Protein: Purine nucleoside phosphorylase
Amino acid sequence: MSAATTIRSRIGSLEPKTAIVLGSGLGKLAERVSDPVRISYGDLDGFPGSGVSGHAAELVAGVMGACPVLMLSGRAHYYEHGDASAMRAPLETLHALGVEKLFLTNAAGSLHPEMPAGSVMQITDHINFSGSNPLFGEKSDRRFVGLTNAYDADMRAALDDAAERCGHFLHRGVYMWFSGPSFETPAEIRMARTIGADAVGMSTVPEAILARFLGMRVAAASVITNLAAGMSGDELSHQETKDMAPIGGARLADILFETVQTLV
Ligand code: HPA
Structure:
């Protein structure tokens, strides 16, 4: 049975037009879904297995406030198997179920001392520095996806308005995708700053490309867990990401909860 059929059979008449991919620190947002239906990725054809500590691997469906939503709690990363299209099946499934607006979240390193750990940044644009693309191998001419307006202006404005209502400062910036899993070097971070990045991370960009390919509207935001390599003198670690992500994650969860209420 296709993943979409499995999900449809479990969620009945729920018609979510909005979906959220929960990155590090955002897992708790799923707790704000009332009467949640939880489906393990293992039960969904084509969905990834659980890959990274700190990430769940389940789809959560239900209503958040007044908005029907689907949440992907946990994602596959390019660095797990070198496959940039690892999230294609889950995103195709959301699209098949009628999702039109997709919010992507992640943990990221900051390139600005004035945007420290605990901050939240709305992604205005991205730089793909991985050398890869989730549409490698795609045959149709639809592969030539325009990314001039990859991050939807109306959804971005909704995030800004929601942040203001929540009293949380929402930075804006360019997210640069590095393949990982090793962290960047200080020299790479100097380069990233020079070419216009504001934050660096290991996810989200392939999902944004796939979602635009599928015709979904996209917005994205980063939870800042650290200053990037070479900026603090400390060695970076995944433990730090996991420890710090819930701080900005709580802020971003408030903002997203508030945002989706305006999209009902
Ligand atoms: N680099 C890449 N990915 C990250 C970082 C970082 O500094 N922090 C959290 N995710």
In short: Residues 107-109, 178, 183-184, 200-202, 225-226, 228, 236, 241 surround hypoxanthine (CB under 6 Å).
